[in-house]
Design brief:
The chain is mostly helical and 292 residues long. Strand 1 and strand 2 form a beta hairpin.
């Protein structure tokens, strides 16, 4: 009796295991019949070629896959992967990434108008449509704005009376009044000579609030006021001076006179009125007395 038989008798339950080990040592290796794992095919989701081309097996090599896909793309449409694909993690060379533009505030986008640098120089020039000369309204007036003839010229032309229109504040009658040139101007000259030192470049109250003449018709006292022209260029300046009624003018009228006679026209009315009185007296008789 051999040793193997003794083993079988002693260990009958291991007979099948023994036969299996014997067969596995003498038989060739068993190859599994299960099919090999399928190779993964790269097929982008949105490619512009046909379904038949997509069903073909593609080599796992990335370079071969790229050449195949590019060759199958239509020639009219340039091939490009979707930007979300893993192969397009970086932007292609034909799509450069522009830097973020700097933030621009809305204030810089609004164009601001430029200031007129020649405003100060143009203010001295006569506005468009207004010439330097004006029509002569009275025989004692000149063709310049706010300028009157001198006393010598008027006396040589035998102009002794200066007339102007007035209106009564009570009866509202309007008529023409005449003032003697020499006597009225002499009164103003004497008043300035006596009170100029105490005026301090300000018009006194008798000039600011003049005593008006009496009405010729109703005989009302302090009731006749001068009729001022609508246009400043037609104001009867000499008549207002001789009647000492320049205080009836508004501040705009007085500034107009000072503007066209090169006088300082800023300040209160009493200052501008003082300059108007002295300016008209200097036009009539250029004496040192009428200097500022």
């Amino acid at each position: 009796m051999g040793r193997s038989e003794n083993c079988k008798r002693k260990f009958p339950e291991r007979e099948d295991e023994f036969l299996t080990l014997k067969l596995s040592s003498n038989s060739p290796p068993i190859v599994s019949e299960s099919p090999p794992p399928a190779e993964h095919t790269f097929l982008p989701p949105s490619l512009p070629f046909t379904t038949a081309a997509a069903e073909q097996r593609v080599s796992p090599s990335i370079s071969t896959t790229m050449e195949t896909l590019v060759s199958q793309a239509p020639p009219q449409i340039p091939f490009q992967f979707p930007l979300t694909h893993s192969l397009c993690a970086l932007p292609p060379p034909f799509m450069p990434v522009s830097p973020t533009p700097p933030s621009v505030s809305n204030n810089n986008l609004i164009s601001k108008p430029r200031r007129n640098s020649s405003r100060n120089t143009s203010s001295k020039k006569t506005r468009e449509g207004k010439g330097e000369t004006v029509p002569i309204s009275f025989p004692w007036a000149t063709d310049r704005r706010a300028m009157v003839r001198d006393l010598k010229y008027l006396l040589q032309r035998q102009i002794f009376t200066i007339t102007g229109n007035v209106q009564c504040k009570k009866c509202e009658r309007e008529y023409e009044m005449g003032l003697d040139l020499q006597s009225k101007f002499a009164e103003i000259e004497n008043f300035i000579a006596e009170n100029k030192s105490s005026m301090h470049d300000r018009a006194p109250s008798v000039w600011m609030y003049p005593v008006l003449p009496n009405c010729r018709y109703c005989h009302e006292e302090n009731s006749v006021k001068p009729v001022l022209a609508e246009k400043k260029r037609s104001i009867n300046w000499l008549f207002l001076l001789l009647g000492q009624m320049l205080g009836c003018c508004t501040l705009e009228h007085l500034k107009y006179f000072c503007k066209h006679t090169d006088n300082h026209r800023t300040g209160a009315k009493d200052r501008v009125l003082y300059l108007t009185y002295l300016g008209l007296c200097k036009q009539l008789d250029p004496k040192d007395l009428f200097e500022r």
